[in-house]
Structure formats: C-alpha cells, structure tokens
Amino acid sequence: MIETERLCLRRFTLEDLEDFHEYAKDPLVGPPAGWKPHESKEESLEILKSFVSSEDIFAMALKSSGKVIGSLGCHVDRKREYKGGVMIGYVLSSPYWGNGLMSEAVEGLLDYIFLTLGMDLVSAYHYPFNEKSGKVLKKAGLVYEGTIRKCSVLPAGEVVDDVCYSMTREEFFRKRNWL
User: Which of 37, 102, 175, 177 is 20 to 30 A from 139, comparing alpha carbons?
Assistant: First the structure.
C-alpha cells in the first residue's frame, strides 16, 4: 500500500466493483487511455478480476471515504528492450479531474518504483489528444523523449502517435534534492 496526503494506492478487491464500473463506463475516461468504455458491470467484473490478481495495478482510493476513483499501474514497457525499468499508466474518474489528485498519485507511485522496487527508469506514454496526461507527467518531473509516430491502434481502429516521457533514477533523486 502507498499513502499520499489524500490517497491510498492499494490492491484492488472484488468489493471495488461499483466504484470501478462507475469510472470505467465513463466515455471521458477510457478513450484517452486507449480503451473503450465498459458496456456492462459484467465486463467491468472480468477486468477487475484480472486487476485483483495483478501485483502491478493499484486502486486509487480517497483516504477520506475509501471510494476508488481511479487506477495506476507499473508494467513492462514493451517499447524498450531494457528491463531495468517500468512503464506507468493511469486513469482517473472524470469528476475528480483538475484537483491535483493524479499528480499526487504519480508522485507516490514514483517513490514506490524507485525506492521500493529499486528500478532505474520509469517511462510513460500518452496520445497527443490527451494533453492532461502530459501535464501530469511534466509536473512529476518526467522528461519528454519524443513522439513515436503512428505507434498505437485505438479500439475503433484509429492509428495514433505515442508521446514519450521518462525519468531515470538519478533524475528522481535530483528532483528530491537527495543527490
């Protein structure tokens, strides 16, 4: 479990189904992350089961209420051969956008990745139309690497670019004035 000022990043449980489905069906949430909104609670349940069994996906819950309002993950970056790092991804329920919650969560996840997992690199990608995600990455101190053109295919078949960011272990420690 990872705690920040307002959030608890923890493993998903099946009891999170209502909260998970609430944001996963929102047409504003899935498409910017590359997946279609969930059409049924049953669809959400099947995906939630995979999250429950995963050790690299965290539920983002408000400390004040316990409500799950999003998720974060750290995964193998299939775009890199180097295996000393992880790729992060995240989604946040749209009513909570613009409150700095995702930036807070990403900072907590970076601490976990560099200090607990001991990784050397964190990477992240967003689509050009998802500028909010780019702002989160920049605020967290990730560095723009470039854009991979025509890299991803969205569920509707549209081919889009991937905007790439990363942070090295040294950059992480420098940002916190620990070097």
Answer: 37
Residue 44 and residue 165: Cα distance in Å, rounded? 29
Amino acid at 145: E
Task: List, for residues 43-75, the tens digit of each pLDDT value.
Answer: 999 999 999 999 999 999 999 999 999 999 999
131-168 tens-digit pLDDT:
999 999 999 999 999 999 999 999 889 999 999 999 99
Q: Which amino acid does the sequence have at 96?
A: Y
Q: What are the CB-based long-range contacts (under 8 Å, 24+) for 22-30?
A: 22/93, 23/69, 23/70, 23/91, 23/92, 23/93, 23/94, 26/93, 26/94, 28/94, 29/91, 29/92, 29/93, 29/94, 30/91
Give yes or no for a contact between 163 and 134, defined as CB atoms under 8 angstroms apart.
Answer: yes
Say if CB 24 and CB 44 are below 8 A apart. yes
What is the distance between the alpha carbons of residues 34 and 51, in angstroms, rounded to a whole number? 17
Q: Over 90: is that where the pLDDT of 178 sits?
A: no
Report phi then psi at 6, rounded to 5. -115, -5
| pLDDT of res. 177 | 81
Task: Give the residue from 118, 81, 123 showing the smallest Cα distance to 106.
Answer: 123
